[in-house]
Amino acid sequence: MELLDRWCSRAQRSRLEPFVKAAATVRKHRDGIAAAIERGLSNGLIEGFNNKVRLNIRRAYGFHSAEAALALVMLCCGPVNLFLPHERAHLRRRPRQ
Length: 97
Description:
The chain is an all-alpha fold. It folds into 2 domains: 2-39; 44-93, no CATH class. Helix content is 73%, strand content 0%. The protein is elongated, with a radius of gyration of 21 Å.
């Protein structure tokens, strides 16, 4: 986090407005950024899943019911099992049977 703090201070001292604005945003959300880095949290998995769902909904345009569109999403995405990072680590340590 020290490097991030140093970058923020240099960016805020610069005269480039986009850098000043970016540094202010990073400082505003610093605690959340630090927590995400320390805990290894990311919403990338969920964003990717949402993208797949949106793509399938577009493909389902013209279906006569929402149930048919939902069936297409479930067919393409299958059963979804989402785990938090500490749960994924626990699953990796489990011996295979």
